[in-house]
Amino acid sequence: MAVDVSSRIRELNESITLKLNAKACALADSGKRIFNLTAGQLPFRPMPEFVELLRSELNFLKSFQYPPVAGLPLLRQKVKKYFADSRKLPLSTVEKNFDCIISNGGKHSVSNALGALIDHGDEVILLAPYWVSYPEIIRFCKGTVVVVNSNIYDAFIPNIDDIKKVISSRTKAIIVNSPNNPSGIHYPDNWMKDFADLMTEHSDVSIISDEIYYEVNYFDPAPTYFYQHRPELLERTIIIDGISKNLACTGLRIGFCLAPKSLVHGMGKLQGQTTSGASSLVQRALINFDFDGIKDYLIPIKSHLRRNADILREKLRDANLSHCFYQPLSAFYYLIDFTQTPKFTAFQEKFAQVDHLEGDVHDISVPICEYLLEEHSIALVPGSAFGLPNTARISLVLENGPFTDAMEILTRCLSEKA
Fold first, then answer.
1. What's the Cα-to-Cα distance from 232 to each of 112, 163, 200, 255, 275, rounded to whole Å?
2. Is residue 30 part of a domain?
């Protein structure tokens, strides 16, 4: 007899990113050439200096033993200093407002923060497109998701007035993800300034700033943040970061969270009763690692991402789809809007019976992506997972040659009327 899972688990949606990636991998294993554009990780080796530090830590007994739940004190202090230096903030300001907790990856940090912050019925504002796991974690914590939409015409930058309209007495937090997954943009400095001004009017609202892609911007200007305009907002800001993206170490599962000391204490209680501390080996290696070297390490990676962004623009132009292009600036991604392509009418007819609604919009992004995978060997992530119907996320991390081939196939398909 099957064991019944809890209502919390039944209400969770499966990660469409992992699902499509698994299907693409299965087809590739069967011998079919697949252009897998679902990846959220870099196909590069980490810095040799960091690898060597990991290797050297293998000689020490403490590298294999339990760490403090919140992380090694020296590493926590080092993360605070690096955060202050990289965001051009006085260390004294960070020391005054913040503590740091080391977690098992950025996603774990988000889960801990929401678990320590959200009570039943609290509202959390998400800016669409948003990362796939935000709404699922919020619902697991019995919170209520409130979405502010954006569109390709504004390069997926949400309107400040739209945010203002949805803030209510039940609003507990708002999540800002810049650089953004899945759009590949970061919010401009004038937006951050206006957002900071708005947040000063709502002193009961916490701000979760997911900055996991902070260093991975390949077009200027670089990302800036609201708290740089209004440092007093740090008193209720929760910063998410880690080594997954900037060091190509997604599998090592090390995330950082800098937050008000009372919240970090609560997150530590939660982490202590669930996962305990993150990897001792990796934490000890990071204590001796020079974070300033990340900038040089990312130079060829940024060049690679910039080239693929240029290839995408060129292929869209060649297929008379230039109106589908906006300039990606950072992270690894681009959102293609199917509704702006000649093929979309044919897709609507083909998938007319698909019953998947996003609000008042008939969303067929999932069957479109399944079609592109099965018929054209292109694996994308449906935009419905990110709160943006009838779109799909393209990862820019593939090697330049195969990426060119993939964009040629994709743009040719989308430019057809039938």
1. 23, 20, 9, 24, 32
2. yes
How much is the pTM?
0.95
- pLDDT, tens digit (0-9, with 9 covering 90-100), for 279-293: 999 999 999 999 999
**Rounded CA separation 130/147 (Å):** 9
Q: In Å, how far from its chain's centre is CA 375?
A: 29
Domain containing residue 70: 65-291
Q: Side chain identity at 60, as an amino acid letter?
A: F
Is there a single domain that holds both residue 300 and residue 396? yes
Contact of 243 with 210, CB cutoff 8 Å: no
One domain for residues 123 and 136 = yes
- In the listed set 291, 322, 357, which residue is the last one of a domain according to the structure? 291
For residues 116-129, average pLDDT? 97
Sign of the torsion angle spanned by Cα atoms 350, 355, 361, 365: negative
> Residue 362 forms beta bridges with which residues?
357
φ and ψ at 402, to 5 degrees?
Answer: -60, -35
318 & 408 share domain: yes
Strand partners, 257: 101, 240
